[in-house]
Amino acid sequence: MNFMFDTLYDQKGLTVMAKGLRKTLGKKKNKITVVFAIIVIIFAIPSKEISAGEIITLFFAILMIVAFIWQDSINAFFARSKMLKGANRATAEFNDDVYTCTTEIAKTDWKYENIKAIAESENYFVFFLSKNHGQLYDKRSIMGGTSEQFVQFIIDKTGLKIEKI
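-> structure tokens emitted (165 positions)
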């Protein structure tokens, strides 16, 4: 069975990709970040009389909370700014042996064993080849079968569990 996807790498999709990375290959790093953030916030709680230094510390704690809440969107923004021109739309075809991704600038065959982790959201599948390389597939554009059939296909090909995000 052949599956095909047509995916636009926009802010929404890249935000899902960032969240997927955080919940799969980045789990350990994310736990460390959460502990660090909690410690900083606890130390930033001002005493009864607020000094200038405590105001600055409180400001940075609030900034950290904001960055923590929107971390996936922030990471997506920077990822999008680093994308090569012509790589913002990709079509992918999944065959028995390999899957092929095509953009305006390249056509690449990928082996299923290169996939390190897979995440699934309401509208996307995300494959991670490393902590720095992910691939996004828009479920709304799937051709050649259903999302459920694709899930079974990709589990059979990779042997990986799919993380729901």
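The longest helix spans residues 27-44.
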